[in-house]
Amino acid sequence: MKEKMTIIFFSGTMDKAVAALILATTAASMGMEVTVFFTFWGLGFLKKGRKFAGKNLFQRMLEIMLPKNRNSLPLTCFNMMGMGPWMMEKLMKQTRTPGIEELFGLAKELKVRLVPCSTSCGVMGADRENFIDGVEEPAGAAFYLKEAKEAKINLFI
To answer: How far apart are the C-alpha atoms of 17 and 19, rounded to whole Å?
Structure first.
């Protein structure tokens, strides 16, 4: 039986997304089965873009205030009105550190499971249509707890 690792990605910021993807791809490259469970702010990583249809007023307000997709995630610290992520991307290129797109491609290649939280989807007004390719069907807390119970490593980012 393969070793497993789970990550709850709750944050929704660029630096934490990079950390989660580095850990997920490293574990997967070591032969572990990896599931990343995206909740609340972390759902922004999975979005294709903004979608307002079918959302109530509060959900539309959230849609405006939150990043439109993984390429517009802010930094946790030193966001500097959007310049922080741009500077971080430049720094990562200079130091030959893989960026979000490269890490995301590697995660898909290594069959890292990307699972949106169904409860968070309901609250945030997110649906399957607005998620990028490669995302699994939304699942609830029971799914995550089953995965976590079988995993050797469980992280919350």
So the answer is: 5
Does residue 12 contact residue 79 with C-beta atoms inside 8 Å? no
Q: What CATH number is associated with residue 113?
A: 3.40.1260.10
Sign of the C-alpha dihedral computed for residues 67, 71, 72 and 78 taken in this order: positive
User: Could you give the CA distance from residue 4 to residue 154 in angstroms, rounded to a whole number?
Assistant: 9
- Please state, in angstroms and rounded to a whole number, the distance separating the CA atoms of residues 151 and 1: 11
pLDDT digits (tens, 9 = 90+) for 118-151: 999 999 999 888 899 999 999 999 999 999 999 9
Which residue is associated with the tokens 């995660």?
A: 107
Q: Is residue 7 part of a domain?
A: no
Q: In what order do the strands lie in the sheet with 153-156?
A: 113-116, 33-38, 4-9, 153-156
Cα(67)–Cα(50) distance, integer angstroms:
9
Residue 150 CB partners (closer than 8 Å, separation 6+): 4
Rounded to two decimals, the pTM is: 0.90
